[in-house]
Every structure is written in C-alpha cells, then in structure tokens.
Design a protein that fits this description.
The structure holds 2 protein chains of 2 kinds. Chain A is mostly beta strands. In chain A, about 0% of the residues lie in helices and about 50% in strands. Chain A is globular, with a radius of gyration of 13 Å. In chain B, the strands form 2 sheets. In chain B, strands 2, 4, 5, 6, 9, 10 and 11 form a 7-stranded mixed sheet that branches. The chains are: A mainly beta, B mainly beta.
Chain lengths: ~110, ~130
C-alpha cells in the first residue's frame, strides 16, 4: 500500500503570506494526486487534481506542483477564509490513502 | 445543482449492522464511479471503498474487507454501504463521494473523488 506523509502538521501564518504544504508518497504515483480543503463540520472540498490542475471555482492563489513522490500545495497570498485543514490524497492504485492533514491557522 | 445526501447513520452496538445510503441528484449517477470515505471526529480521512459505474467492480480498505459491502441502484440514483460486524474503531463520519475519471494512454483510467456529501455519523458503542 502507498503511504502519504504531509508536512507540516500545523502551520500558522499571516494574511498575505505565501505558504507551502508538502506531501510525500512512499512510492511513485506519477501525478495521480489531489488536494482537499476541509473546514470544521464540513465535507472536504477538492482544490487541485492531477497534482497541478486547479479545480473550477477555486481561487488562483492555490497552486499544486510535483510528480512522482514529492508534491506541494502553495497558497500565494493567504486570506482569512483559507483557515482550514488541508489533505493530500493519491488515486494511483487501491487502496487510496490520505496524508494526515495540515491544519492552517491565520494569525 | 449537484447533491449527495448520506443517511442511515446512528448508534449501533458492537457486532451490529447498519446500512448507509447516499442519494444523489444533479448529475447522471450511472456514469460515475463512487466512493465511501470516513473520518473519525477530529481525525484524518480514510478511504473505505469504491464501486464502478455499473456496480460490477468493487474495492475495499483492508480494515473493512469482508465486513462492509458497497453497492448501488442506478435506477434509484442511490449508493449504499452495508456495514456488518461493526467495531468501535468503525465510529466515524461516513462520506460518499463522486469520482472524476481520467485516462492515461499507457496505464488506463484513474478516478479522483471530486464532489462529496455532507456525511453521516456512525457511532459503534454499547
């Protein structure tokens, strides 16, 4: 099974900052990776698919990169509404797996 | 507008059974593979199961294999998860999710969960 490891687990930054979250796969998953945003009490929301494709309706300050085993989610200019937990997930083979999540706090 | 609405959660004793439903609208259900994903309150996400568009193919996480069964009724636009022999560690919010399909010329099809329901809470406790 493929293991996904995210870092950092928590992140605190100010509005306007640029932040990057990293996700590592235990083996190559090509670009079969998604990023989700989850707010308390809500379902996850797809932000990025195929590692770098921006989901329709998602602000352009979100971007994804990487391939193989190393991936990043970057938020170019943090907004207060970006306070949430972010998860990576591979969809290369079954079983799918998620990273453990990164909780982002806006100072 | 696309909607996925889970139901059927609740309190069940260890060893008991429960069937979750996910009623969908706003898209052609029979065109999409579907997933179940769960989340222990306050913890991370765990993929549980998936089913092909026609119901002929399924996959499960190891921890639920042999106890859970995913199925669908395309005529009713509804996805199901039959959960048997429930354990305390199955306590979680269960989400259904639709899959977006991608094709790679050399390696075939890939399915990414893209739209999720609001979830239904299953509590396994005596």
């Amino acid at each position: 099974d493929i293991q996904m490891t995210q870092s950092p687990s928590t992140l605190s930054a100010s509005a306007g900052d640029r932040v990057t979250i990293t996700c590592r796969a235990s083996q190559s998953i090509s670009n079969w990776l998604a990023w989700y945003q989850q707010k308390p009490g809500k379902a996850p929301k797809l932000l990025i698919y195929k590692a770098s494709s921006l989901e329709s309706g998602v602000p352009s300050r979100f971007s994804g990169g990487g391939s193989g085993t190393e991936f990043t989610l970057t938020i170019s200019s943090l907004q207060p509404d970006d306070s949430a937990t972010y998860y990576c997930q591979h969809f290369n083979t079954y079983p799918y797996s998620f990273g453990q999540g990164t909780k982002l706090e806006i100072k | 507008e696309m909607q996925l609405v889970e139901s059927g959660g609740g309190l069940v004793q260890p060893g008991g059974s429960l069937r979750l439903s996910c009623a969908v609208s706003g898209f052609t259900f029979s065109d999409y593979w579907m997933h179940w994903v769960r989340q222990v309150p306050g913890k991370g996400l765990m993929w549980v199961s998936r089913i092909s568009d026609d119901g002929s193919s399924t996959s499960y996480a190891e921890s639920v294999k042999g106890r859970f069964t995913i199925s669908r009724d395309n005529a009713k636009n509804t996805l199901y998860l039959q959960m048997n022999s429930l354990r305390g560690e199955d306590t979680a919010v269960y989400y259904c999710a639709r899959s977006r399909k991608f094709y790679h010329f050399f390696t075939g099809y890939y399915y990414c969960p893209d739209s999720w329901g609001q979830g239904t809470l299953v509590t396994v406790s005596s």
